[in-house]
Design goal:
The protein is α+β, with helices and mostly antiparallel strands. It folds into 2 domains: about 1-35; about 35-103, Nuclear Transport Factor 2, Chain: A, CATH 3.10.450. It is built from 3 helices and 4 strands, in the order αααββββ. It has helices at about 1-30, 30-35, 40-50, and strands spanning about 55-65, 70-80, 80-90, 95-100. It has a 4-stranded antiparallel beta sheet with strand order 1-2-3-4. The chain is globular. The protein starts with a helix and ends with a strand. About 15% of the residues are buried.
Amino acid sequence: MKTAIRLSRIIAAATVLTLAAGTAAVYANNAPAKADAKITMDEAKAQALQLQPGKIKDAELEHEQGGSGLRYSFDIQSAHGVREVGIDAMTGAVLENDVDHGD
């Protein structure tokens, strides 16, 4: 009986860990964040490049404080160095347009 209980606990723990790993992978790919965003990545890119012409080196959708809490962040190589431009994914508001300090 004790062996059966231990086995069921082990199976339950393994199931929880498997589900947690699957959830982490979804969040790593930002699927839930993309579903929540009202502004598309392409719309945000166009807006960022209007603010700071150059070449986009990195683009991501992230949860971060400020604005709605969901933002697109772009590292843009310009003639004057790398700039970080943040666009609110819900409203399209500009949250950041500064020199990228690599932090």
